[in-house]
Amino acid sequence: MPYITVDQENSGDIDIYYEDHGSGQPVVLIHGFPLDGASWEKQIPMLLDAGYRVIHYDRRGFGRSSQPAIGYDYDTFTADLNALIETLDLRDIVLAGFSMGTGEITRYLGAYGTDRVAAAALFAPLAPYLLKTDDNPEGVPAAVFEEIKQAIRDDRFAYQKDFLDNFYNMDVFGGTARASEQVWQHGWAVAVGASALGTLRCVDAWCTDFRGDVPALSNVPLLVVQGTENRILPIDNTGRRLRTLVRNVQYHEVDGGPHNIGWTHAEVVNPLLLGFLTKQ
């Protein structure tokens, strides 16, 4: 299993687990909270069959990567992504992210530029700025995030149950082909296997202000896809705002789609992604 070392905490290395399959133009897949890189399993075979090189990795604190107590902020997450890109010397990349993974892409383009990037795809985006402030009245009140952090401190396992119920809109899709009980159970197992500290500290990362990075999204062809019934990152606070701020964007809404549309509505998402890639 391949790893790259991105940092050190006291006496231990901080290692990022990744997988690198196929050949052709590289597509780097960046997963969402609270899952891991394997959560792209409905997209990976399609991309490989279409002739792309597919790289996915586990964010620090999640999956098979190290679980340090430090580095749960977007400058560090993006530095980890950059380390992977530079170690593998990837060029002409398509960056594709879901949920938290869209934050790495937005910050990467803002901080590192587009020299290595050909295009980007954001599914259920986090940008431009989720936190409600005086100059960002469209955001979510800070009290909501404080309640989430307290719920994680009180009972992380129960919190992940509630989170995943809304991740898939289980009251609508649960027990159907879109969101079986088994996929929910798998998601819960992956979620509770993540770092407890990382899970807690990621909540503050959700409140990152990406408004300074968003203009860089206009520098590459961009695909944005989001479900209209997203209960985790409400579409009016995120995707619908983002499309008004970015040039060169292909924007699509999945009617009735929940947060994790890449799983529940793969029959919609996959053709959109593949059609976007073939035009680049």
UniProtKB/TrEMBL annotation:
One GO CC term, this protein: membrane
Keyword set, alphabetical order: Hydrolase, Oxidoreductase, Peroxidase
Top-rank EC class of the record's enzyme: oxidoreductase
InterPro entries noted in UniProt: AB_hydrolase_1 (IPR000073), AB_hydrolase_fold (IPR029058), AB_hydrolase_sf (IPR050266), Epox_hydrolase-like (IPR000639)
GO molecular function, one term: hydrolase activity
Entry keyword annotation includes Transmembrane helix: no
E.C. numbers: 1.11.1.10
Pfam families attached to this UniProt entry: Abhydrolase_1
Residue intervals of the AB hydrolase-1 domain: 26-265
Family (UniProt): Belongs to the AB hydrolase superfamily. Bacterial non-heme haloperoxidase / perhydrolase family.
Name by which UniProt lists this protein: Chloride peroxidase
